[in-house]
């Protein structure tokens, strides 16, 4: 599914648009941007169009573009939603390097997390991040995620193995931190 518009102070989360897929492909072709992602290869335009069509129809995921000043700067989503057990995984990418380190990812995670718990009624969110991705760890922990595990030698990149850290956030912990 494509998520509804969620407005924050610096950014908004908006439904992804088909006309932005070339921008998304550009991000995925930049090794600096994808160094912490599981994506290894740049999808063709047709593959990206097929992915978009599937994402728009998939009832077990919600996808957004992260938009600043009318320009898409990244993507975020809730994936693999288990509607019975009310849990899902999450992910975020800031694809435009100009926006790195300025709080945009933190706001996107906060908006997405609030939607997951208040609108979707989920109970638990989980995500993982490569051990070297310290900036994302700070974003997640700032939003209340806690480290729950380590996947050793989980991803092979740049000729070496990398560990992945698992994080979770429970609805009650979120509500305690965000009582509004």
Task: Map the helices and strands.
Layout (H helix, E strand, L loop, with lengths): L5 E2 L4 E3 L6 H8 L2 H4 L10 H13 L4 E7 L2 E12 L4 E8 L9 H15 L5 E7 L3 H9 L3 E12 L2 E11 H7 L3
Parallel strand pairs: 5-6
Antiparallel strand pairs: 1-2, 2-3, 3-4, 4-5, 6-8, 7-8
What is the compact description of this entry?
It contains 6 helices and 8 strands. It is an alpha+beta fold. It has a domain at about 5-125: Aminopeptidase (3-Layer(aba) Sandwich).
Give a verbal description of the structure:
The protein is of the alpha+beta class. The protein has a domain at 6-126: 3-Layer(aba) Sandwich (Aminopeptidase). It has helices spanning 21-28, 31-34, 45-57, 104-118, 134-142, 171-177, and strands spanning 6-7, 12-14, 62-68, 71-82, 87-94, 124-130, 146-157, 160-170. Strand 7 and strand 8 (160-170) form a beta hairpin. The longest helix is centred in the middle third of the chain and has 15 residues, at 104-118. The protein is globular and about 40 Å long. 30% of the residues are buried.
Helicity level: 25-40%
Fourth-tier CATH superfamily name of the domain at 6-126: Gcn5-related N-acetyltransferase (GNAT)
Strand content: 25-35%
CATH topology of the domain at 6-126: Aminopeptidase
Q: Give the distance, in angstroms, between the N- and C-terminal Cα atoms.
A: 26 Å
CATH class of the domain at 6-126: Alpha Beta
Anisotropy-based shape: globular
Number of contiguous helices: 6
Integer average pLDDT: 92
The biggest sheet, with number of strands, parallel, antiparallel or mixed sense and barrel status, is:
8 strands, mixed
Biggest sheet strand order reads 1-2-3-4-5-6-8-7
H and E string: EEHHHEEEHEHEEH
CATH architecture annotation of the domain at 6-126: 3-Layer(aba) Sandwich
Which spans of ≥5 residues are poorly predicted at pLDDT below 50?
A: none
The radius of gyration over CA amounts to 16 Å
The chain-level structural class is alpha+beta
Number of strands: 8
């Amino acid at each position: 599914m494509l998520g509804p518009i969620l407005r924050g102070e610096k950014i908004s989360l908006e439904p992804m648009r088909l006309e932005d897929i070339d921008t998304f492909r550009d991000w995925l072709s930049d090794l600096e941007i994808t160094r912490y992602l599981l994506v290894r290869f740049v999808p063709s335009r047709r593959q990206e169009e097929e992915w978009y069509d599937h994402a728009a129809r998939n009832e077990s995921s919600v996808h957004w573009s992260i938009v600043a000043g009318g320009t898409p700067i990244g993507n975020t989503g809730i994936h693999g939603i288990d509607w019975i057990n009310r849990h899902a995984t999450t992910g975020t990418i800031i694809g435009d390097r100009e926006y790195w380190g300025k709080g945009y990812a933190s706001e996107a995670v906060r908006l997405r997390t609030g939607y997951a718990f208040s609108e979707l009624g989920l109970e638990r969110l989980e995500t993982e991040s490569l051990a070297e991705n310290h900036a994302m760890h700070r974003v997640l922990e700032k939003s209340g995620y806690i480290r729950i595990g380590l996947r050793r030698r989980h991803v092979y990149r740049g000729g070496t193995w990398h560990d992945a850290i698992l994080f979770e956030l429970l609805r009650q912990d979120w509500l305690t931190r965000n009582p509004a």
